[in-house]
Amino acid sequence: MANPGAENNAEESGGMGFLEHLEELRWRLIKGLIAVFVCAVPCGYFWRAIFNFVIMYPLSTSDPKPHLIFSAPTAAVVLSVQIALIGGLIIASPIVFYQLWKFVAPGLYPGEKKLILPLVIFTTFSFLAGMGFSYLILPIFLKFLMGFGAGALEPYFRADEYMSFLFKIVFAFGLIFEMPVVSFVLAHAGIISHKVLLKYVRLAILIIFIVAAILTPTPDAFSMILMAMPLLALYGISIIVAYYAGKKNV
Q1: DSSP letter string over 50-94?
Q2: pTM reported for the whole predicted model
Q3: Residue 156 bridge partners (DSSP)
Q4: Which residues of 79-111 are buried (b: 16+ CB within 10 A; e: fewer)?
Q5: What is the dihedral of CA 31, 172, 124, 61, to 10 degrees?
Q6: Considering the chain, what is the average pLDDT of its residues?
Q7: What is the pLDDT of residues 89-113, one digit of tens each?
Q8: How do residues 12-27 score in pLDDT, each as one tens digit?
Q9: CA geometry: angle at 223 spanning 219 and 229, to 5°?
Q10: Which of 142, 160, 147 has the alpha carbon at shortest distance from 58?
């Protein structure tokens, strides 16, 4: 990120030592956690509605439909807390990402700090888009899994295990959809370029299909391809983003 204002930026952030950075990180974490807990309150109050309309949605097309059970006296309470905290994290994600980028901001050049707000919006949108996409494909996977054992096994899920399964898949997709954001930041910093991404496109395709095979809960090739398609699209978008981010530095 070559910039004629580097000296000014060095003077502006150079006075912040290691302990000051730790203190800054601590307060950013505290603010992010406060936002999550505040947003978790209404989610905890309406946890039953969230459970019925959001958590149960991926099972809506399954046949036979699984029965969700809890096997400990406190399991329902723990489930409500999980729903509250995960819901709070999702709702507060713009604030959490804002705190993240503000922590990074002291290391940016003055002209680059104007990118903080667009990056917060871009990061939040990508994260939520990834989570939304996972909810589109989860019913397909779960329908296959339920149908695989139909007639031989009766599906009974522990609610906490099912919730953990959903969170891992949805959160993983939220992070994967950050690929264009990472591409923009690295290209803007001059660490990578669209030419580098194009050079290693074959390796990227191989890695994407390996990741798709790991993330896909079903063993068939169709599901793996279905999972890989958005990842390939994201890689293509990342190349375009890196191209335009790189032009800014020319």
Answers
A1: HIIIIISGGGTT-SSPPEEE--STTHHHHHHHHHHHHHHHHHTHH
A2: 0.78
A3: 67
A4: bbebbbbbbbbbbbbbbbbbbbbbbeebebbee
A5: -120
A6: 82
A7: 999 999 999 998 888 776 666 666 7
A8: 444 466 677 788 888 8
A9: 135
A10: 142
